[in-house]
Amino acid sequence: MKTMTATATVLIGAAGLVPLAASAGPTLDAIAARGEINCGVSTGTSIGKSTLDDQGNWTGFEADFCRAVAAAILGDGTKVNFVPLEFKNAFASLQSGSVDLLARSATWTLARDSELAFEWAGVYIYDGQGFLVSKASGIASADQLAGAAICVTSGTTTELNLADYFRTKGMDYSPITVSAPDQSIANLESGRCDAYTNEVGGLASYRLGLSDPDAYTILPDVISKEPLGPVVRQDDPQFEDVVEWTRNALVIAEEFGVTQANVAEMAATTTQPELRRFLGAEGEFGAKLGLPNDWAVKVIQTTGNYGELFERTLGSQSEARIARGVNTLWSEGGLLYAPPVR
Amino acid sequence: MRTGVDHPRSATREAVGPAARPAAGLRRRPRHPPPWGAIAQQVAAIALVAAGLAYLGGNVARNLAASGMAVDFGFLSQEAGFAMSFSLIPMDETASYGRVFVAGILNTLFIAGLALVTATALGLAVGFARLSPLGPLRQAAGIYVETLRNLPLLLILIFVQSVALRSLPVVREAVSVGGVVHLSNRGIYLPWPAADQSLMPAGLAAALGLIGLGIAWSLRPRTPARSPRDLAGAVGGLGLAVAALVAAARMLDWERPELQGFDFRGGAKLMPEFVALLTALTLYNAAFIAEIVRAGLQSVDRGQVEAARALGLRDGFIRRRIVLPQALRLMVPPLTNQYVHLVKASSLATVVGFPDLVAVFLGTSLNQTGRAVEIVAMTGAVYLVLCLGLGALSAAWNARVAVRER
Predict the structure, then answer these.
(1) For all residues of chain B together, what is the average pLDDT?
(2) What is residue A22's predicted lDDT score, i.e. its pLDDT?
(3) Among A34, A168, A314, B77, which is most buried by a count of CB atoms within 10 Å?
């Protein structure tokens, strides 16, 4: 009798410890309750996108984007919990709910959008895939890479694009597949592979990890489209709207010349109707998103507009020094376009 | 006709026959009531466990359905779209995920099987060396075992790959041994028989060579006393075997690796990732196997060795035919442990970039398709089957060589 009671107690107790099914409540509620947003970023070596500086602060385009979303929802850009994720764990972490938002240079593809049950909340960087080679190898174009050993990260779209490209051209190659870009850079430097393939923005930032970055060059051929954007789950359409409009806010601010320095003044004094609606001076457009009306002001105060954000983290004021390329406003010939605030 | 033995009737009735009643004075075996308490306990425990499993299983199914990802193995027929750098079956980008799964299993079996053989061989040698009468040999073996047993396998693997293999020169400046074998950090290049030639003549010569080896082995001197006829037969067989194998090698058209463009073409290429993984698995597991071997050898009664020596048998013979067979009984269960560990440890191929099952299926395919539950279940099932198979083989061998108490 004693054994039976003990066994029963243990088994019932163990069953009780099993966590209940993940609540299907909106992600926004969870963020509000928690008081901060769980943002999945890279493991800290993606210079310009998400890195740790020597004071332990996260810097970079993606880290700042997380801060922008936190500023929109919670009014404070510091309320972010950065979760460093390796690529192979990134999607699983988002699926399981460990992170609310994945700001990790994930390419938007049809398969990922449909099969993985994710939503891309817009595109924040339009990128393409290229090759990084050493200048000493004398390779000037991707057509000369027949028979080469090419370093690539496993499980990414770059691996598949590489296979497609070489199959189309009828060239053969050896893929050196590893799980992290740092290993690829080490392989490239030691001569294990002849070229490293990744998005051009990524190549520019990972090149800085080489001991002599100027001895390496990015080939001019861009072999694919890589639209990078923030990723959320499909279970909370309202949260997806918020993230999408945070991205749009950055672009709209640049369209209207709103900067980190002048946003507060503009919010108070502007007479432009769309700008007044955007900055919350009139209308209830923030409330339509479930946010306070001054959400856009908070976003721009935290990170600045898209141009400032890009130049500070990836562009002319940063180490990576990537040209904006197509990441400029549509009115200047680029691809950045945002719907109107109306 | 009955036998001549005369049984008193009373004795027959009482002592013989199935219906004999027990002799007076003995009680009947007391009948215990069925253990209702224990039965109820077992039923309740089983019901609770089943309920727990049903709850967990239902939870998984409900959540998967809610997030739109019901369990579906249809992805196995989709085109994978990526290439594998090493594969035993023909593979290209148009292969399906199912074919990737099979190629991954074969790669895992290949590296694990090869590492098993080399680790056992090295472990046996080091184990014997630890019991050698030669002092320096014993100490060297001791240092090897103590060092490699106490370092993590991952560390040894990264060391072999980053330090040892990276130190080889780049492919344009490859070190060449005899002009036919080339070493570089992109691989080790060996000559290999050219693809489009008939292997029949060479195959026949090799078979002849193996037959010669078989003859030499069966005629080998097996007793301390050497018979001149046996010795002559053994040496003759060996000579024939060597000549036949050399002739077989000569008959083949060997393809030598030549540097063309980015890499050596022709011949066979050993990937540094493969060499690093094989080396690390061999070195690490050989240290453990050496200790298992040593324990087995030392467990054999000293009296056996002393008696054999008193009979004038040679040391090598004693070790092979008297000590080792008795030691094997003790060694088989821990050896099985070590082999199972080796098979699972081969999944560290993801660290070095060798495309085994975990790297190519649990890594790349899972990220491309998002089918976490199906892929993890399939990979787990493969490892489970492999290790259970090893355990079953070991149990069968154990049963054969078990000590039978008389």
Answers:
(1) 85
(2) 35
(3) A314
Assigned token pair, A297: 């002001």
pTM above 0.80, yes or no: no
Confidence of residue A10 (pLDDT cuts 50, 70, 90): low
Nearest CA in chain A to B40: A4
What are the strands of the beta sheet with A58-59, ordered from one edge? A45-46, A50-52, A58-59
DSSP B219: T
CB contact under 8 A, B49 and A112: no
Q: What pLDDT sits at residue B330?
A: 85
What is the overall mean pLDDT for chain A? Answer: 88
Residue A163: list chain B partners with CB under 8 A.
81-83, 93
Cα distance between residue B93 and residue A159, in whole Å: 11
- Cα separation, A120 vs B208, in Å, equals 67
SS3 B194: coil
In the predicted model, is pLDDT for residue B352 greater than 50?
yes
Which residues, including other chains, have CB under 8 Å from residue A51's CB and lie 6 or more apart? A44, A45, A58, A59, A60, A63
Cβ-Cβ contacts under 8 Å, B51 against chain A:
15
**Residue A224 gets which letter from DSSP?**
S
What residues contact residue B37 under an 8 Å CB cut-off, 6+ apart?
A1, A4
Distance CA(A91)–CA(A97), nearest Å, equals 10
Asked whether the beta carbons of residue A8 and residue B48 sit closer than 8 angstroms, the reply is yes
Segment B374-394 shows an average pLDDT of: 94
| ipTM value | 0.73
| Separation of alpha carbons A297 and A277, rounded Å | 11
* C-alpha–C-alpha distance, residues B176 and B267, integer Å: 14
List pLDDT tens digits, range A238-252.
999 999 999 999 999
DSSP A279: T
pLDDT of residue B263: 84
Give yes or no for a contact between B320 and B156, defined as CB atoms under 8 angstroms apart: no
Chain A and chain B share a number of CB contacts under 8 A equal to 125
Partnered with residue A45 across adjacent β-strands are A51
Specify the amino acid at residue B174: A
A42 vs A50: CA distance, rounded Å:
6
Strands (E), B37-195: 175-177, 181-184, 187-190, 192-193
Question: How does pLDDT run across A92-126, given as a tens digit for each residue?
Answer: 889 888 999 999 988 999 888 887 778 999 999 99
| Among candidates B51, B82, B263 on the partner chain, residue whose Cβ is nearest the Cβ of A147 | B263
CB contact under 8 A, A167 and B93: yes
User: What pLDDT score was predicted for residue B40?
Assistant: 93
C-alpha separations of B383 from A112, A217, B228, B341, B373 in Å: 29, 43, 52, 11, 16
Interface test with A, best of B82, B354, B376 (most A CBs within 10 A): B82
Q: Which residue has the tokens 């308490």?
A: B37
Question: Which two structure tokens, joined as six digits, stand for B339?
Answer: 């082999």
